[in-house]
Every structure is written in C-alpha cells, then in structure tokens.
Amino acid sequence: MKVFVTGGAGYVGSHCCKRFAEAGWEVVVYDNLSRGWREFVRWGPLVEGDILDEERLTAAIREARPDAIAHFAAIAYVGESVTEPDRYYRNNSTGALNVLDAMRKTGVEKILFSSTCATYGTPQKTPIDETHPQAPINPYGWSKLFVEKALADYAHAFGMRYTSLRYFNAAGADPGGEIGERHEPETHLIPLVIRGILDPDFTLSVLGDDFPTRDGTAVRDYVHVADLGEAHYAALKRLEGGGGSETFNLGTGVGTSVAEAVAAAERVTGRPVKRRIAQRRPGDPPELVAAAAKARDMLGWRPAHSGIDDIIRSAFDWHSRGG
Ligand SMILES: NC(=O)c1ccc[n+]([C@@H]2O[C@H](COP(=O)([O-])OP(=O)(O)OC[C@H]3O[C@@H](n4cnc5c(N)ncnc54)[C@H](O)[C@@H]3O)[C@@H](O)[C@H]2O)c1
Hints:
Layout: E1 2-6, H1 11-22, E2 26-31, E3 46-48, H2 54-64, E4 68-71, H3 78-83, H4 85-106, E5 110-116, H5 139-158, E6 161-167, E7 169-171, H6 189-198, E8 204-207, E9 219-220, E10 222-224, H7 225-240, E11 246-250, E12 256-257, H8 258-269, E13 275-278, E14 287-288, H9 293-299, H10 308-320
Parallel strand pairs: 1-2, 1-4, 2-3, 4-5, 5-6, 6-11, 7-10, 8-13, 9-14
Antiparallel strand pairs: 9-12
C-alpha cells in the first residue's frame, strides 16, 4: 500500500503518516509548508508543492503511483476564514477539486478526506450524528462542506471511492514523542492550556463562562491525534478491502469543558494554569459532541488515548521538551 498524503507536514497529517508507516505502508508527502513543518515529515519523502498548482500536483501523483490519497492540506482558522473567504474557498475547495481531478488523470480511485464538525454549524441537538443537518456558520465550514458534496458527485460520476472523516477537536501529541501539535498562530485549546503552564509571559483566555453548560464554559469533544491516526488507518483498510464511500464522525462522544480541561492540566502536571475570563467569540456553540457509534461499528474504531488526562500528558511531554 502506498499513500500520497497532501498536508502531511501538518499536525494531523504527520501523525497519520506515522501510523501508515507503522503498518508497513509507503507514504509520500505533498505539502507547501505554508503551515506545516519540514521536521514533521519523517516517514517518507517530501514533495514541496501547492495543491493549487494542478500541474505539479498531477505530476507528483503520477510519479508516486499511489494506491490512495489522504487529503489533509487545508487552511483551518475559523476567524481568518471570515475575513479572507476568497483564500479559504480557493485553497480548501478549489485545492480539493485539483486533487480529485489529478486522481482522475492518474487513475487513483481511493481518497480519505479531512472534514470537520464545523460543517454542522450550530447543532440542533447533541450528541451530533452523521445525519445531523449540515449548515456551516463560517466560510471555513462551507469550504469543507463543498468538498464533501464534490466527493459524492465525483464518486457517482467517475467511480471513485472516498471516506470523509469529520474530526471534532484533534488534540494531544504522538505518544512516542516524535511529533506534536504546532500551529502558528496557535488557537487550539490544549496547546494554549499548556502554554499557560510553561510560558511565564502567557495567560490563557477562557472564552466565555456564561454558556448554558454544566460550569458555564464551552464543551468540546477532544480526540487524541493518535486515535485519529488509527481511524485513518482503519478507513483506508476498509476502502482497500472494497468498502464503499462513507462519512464518519471522529469524536469520542464525551464532552470536556474548558474548565475541566484546565483542571485536568493542573492535576496531571501539578502546576497552575494562568488564566483569565474573556468574552465569548461570536458564533461559538456551547457544546459540540459527536455521536461516535458509526465509526465504532463500521471501522471497529475505539479511541484508546482520548481521555483528557492522556491528551494533556502527551501534549505536556511534547511541549515541555520544546515541541
Ligand atoms: N486540528 C483539528 O482539530 C481539525 C479539526 C477538524 C478538521 N481538521 C482538518 O484536518 C486537516 C489537518 O488539520 P491540521 O490541524 O493538521 O492543520 P495543519 O495546518 O497543521 O496542517 C495542514 C497542512 O496542509 C498544508 N497546506 C495548506 N495549504 C496547502 C496547499 N495549498 N498546498 C499544499 N499544502 C498545503 C500546510 O502547510 C500544513 O502542513 C485540515 O484539512 C483541517 O481542516 C482539523
């Protein structure tokens, strides 16, 4: 098995490359390093290129001759997508079409796609299952929902098979300590909580303590990135075995509030998290928790590292070693 991994120098993509390599699969990473890290590409060659450069992308796929594509490459800041929608639609939607068209030209028929719980928008009920209406509330979510639709239409017309994986909140670091979460700028909660411990000049802003939740802070479904790696492995095995196109939530079904994540960090590390209460961000839902039964039943996926203490411990270990 050989997998062509767009965005494989990024956070989730690099952890998935590690899992694929552990399975004995070959990986080729295609990334423009706009938001990724050369040192995260350890399990196969890096082709530096942009998914918007269709010619280069097609040539790279033709040369690699992969059995499947894992498409992670995207930009993913909700706030930025509101002020720069043009960039988001171009990079995430047009970029994905380029990947699909390159697959057609090179005869690759299987693809995994990194989708997101942001395609659901403000949930009408929770936990959110895969049949929940999709009504994004920002351009980032729309740019991803467009790709889900294009995948379905391309699969129908051209005989490709895809798996869309709607991640909830990816978190944690490689339990082997080789790679971890690094976004620039960082907007994800767990690395910011850790920064609130390690960086004397940083204070964590808790965005809202007046949500209608058990302690007033926002509740999210954190899923360990190593468990995401396992789900991608299982999803590709399924496609390789002839499985049809499907969409899965990747979450645990367990919600953790910001206050609970902070308390877990203080408990696990024995150190205080410097924090202050700040205003909610407009449009932030109180609670986003996945109904996770479909991935469990059809992929046999059981998150093994996604307890909040395990997430914090792996992230803290990686960040305290300078990650
Ligand atoms: N991190 C999360 O919690 C989360 C949640 C839901 C969905 N996702 C999705 O998962 C995927 C990976 O997210 P991540 O957190 O690892 O982000 P990331 O920024 O760490 O990784 C994205 C990678 O894609 C590359 N890239 C971006 N645009 C490119 C382009 N035009 N050409 C080539 N490479 C390009 C970047 O350089 C980077 O290495 C994204 O598609 C994101 O939308 C992430």
